[in-house]
């Protein structure tokens, strides 16, 4: 009779992701806006990226 291995429980090996918070989203947005600022050299995007950065690190 087939006995599955005890470690074959899928619950144990489900990847755990860090909780998605506003701060982590702002961090991603900061990086994205920063890259856009470098590419387009826009002052408005630079201010938006700095604002996101300050709010995320507050």
Written overview of the protein:
The chain crosses the membrane at residues 29-56. Keywords: Membrane, Transmembrane, Transmembrane helix. The protein is mainly alpha-helical. The chain has a domain at 22-58. The chain is built from two helices and no strands. The chain has helices at 22-40, 43-57. Helix 1 (22-40) packs antiparallel against helix 2. The model has no long low-confidence stretch (mean pLDDT 82).
Distance between the termini: 60 Å
Q: Supply the helix-strand structural class.
A: mainly alpha
- SSE topology string: HH
The number of distinct helices, counting runs of at least 4 residues, comes to 2
Compute the average pLDDT: 82
Instruction: Describe the sheet with the most strands.
Output: none
Care to count the β-strands? Answer: 0
Whole-number radius of gyration?
Answer: 21 Å
Shape: elongated
What low-confidence regions span 5 or more consecutive residues with pLDDT below 50?
none
> Per DSSP, what share of the residues sits in E-state strands of 2 or more residues?
under 5%
**Helix content, binned percent:** 55-70%
